[in-house]
Amino acid sequence: MSSERKKITDLINIPGFTFSFELTPNISEDEINALEMSPVFFSVTWHAKAHQCKNLEIDPLQTVRLLKSKGKNVLLHLTCDLLRMSYLDQLLIFLKEQDICNLFVILGDNYNPDTSDFKSTTELIKYIREKTGDYFCIGIAGFPDCSDEKLLQLKQKLENGADFIVTQAFFEPEILKKFIEQCENCGIKAPILPGVFLFENYDQLAKFLNMCKGKVSDNFVNIIKSKEQSGAPCSEVIKKMVQDLKEQININHFHFFTMNKMQSVCNLIKQLG
């Protein structure tokens, strides 16, 4: 196992265009081995209701071990959902033993405060900092088009120890531009990593939006449906969005929510050069 630890805030500052992939723990070793590109890091999702935080052999941690054994940089998701301090204490020790120093901390789907020792993401971040100092580089979720109240909550998480932001997937460049401006106006200076979801048809887009409770404009829906009717690839919309953000506001790192369909994302990245 490599003893080298690289924090996300350093990895995203590598010169030139860089990218990272989000995976779910059911990814196979063969799929990872077949990958023809090298993301600067892989994030691994954490679904507490599936594994119940029952031990250190749960699927996300098995995937973390696999990626680390192949010399990959890893960002592990961690939710407040079903999380007890006793388990977290064991987990933090395990992660340090595995040279994992990056965490993406979120509340979790259908979170129930009665089954967790942590009542908010901020509380969880503070606890991790109290236990481990600055060992971990901590990311949090940012939601473009959020309210002023949500923006202040985001700032509070950063003030309590978070280091960077990964946005929810968005599909029009103006949305990210506005979000960055809002962050700057309220004093948020942390790095913002744009979250990107590549879809091939309207049905895939609709399912993703339903899953993550996202939204798009009616105009965007009409553009996608028009492309489908004409036989043009819907992926061209995402390609153009990424190109526009690179050229117009100098965004150099993009985080792809792959849903384990990494080859499609690799094909897009090849086109981006």
Describe the protein's architecture and organization.
- The chain has a 9-stranded parallel β-sheet with strand order 7-6-5-4-3-2-1-9-8, covered by helices on one side.
- The chain has one domain (8-268): TIM Barrel.
- The chain is an alpha/beta fold and 273 residues long.
- Helix 11 (235-249) crosses helix 12 (262-272).
- The chain is built from 12 helices and 9 strands.
- The chain is globular, with a radius of gyration of 18 Å.
- It is 45% helix and 14% strand.
Give a nutshell description of this structure.
This protein has 273 residues and is of the alpha/beta class. 45% of the residues lie in helices and 14% in strands.
Largest sheet entry: 9 strands, parallel
Give the oligomer, counting copies of the same chain as homo and different chains as hetero: single chain
Q: Any guess at the CATH architecture?
A: Alpha-Beta Barrel
Which geometry do the CA atoms define?
globular
Count of helical segments?
Answer: 12
List keywords for this structure.
about 270 residues, alpha/beta, flavoprotein, TIM Barrel
Structural topology:
Elements: H1 8-11, E1 18-23, H2 29-33, E2 42-44, H3 48-51, H4 59-69, E3 74-79, H5 85-97, E4 102-106, H6 121-132, E5 137-142, H7 148-159, E6 164-167, H8 173-185, E7 192-193, E8 195-196, H9 202-212, H10 218-230, H11 235-249, E9 253-257, H12 262-272
Helix pairs in contact: 11-12
Keywords: FAD, Flavoprotein, Oxidoreductase
Organism: Bombyx mandarina (Wild silk moth)
Pfam families: MTHFR
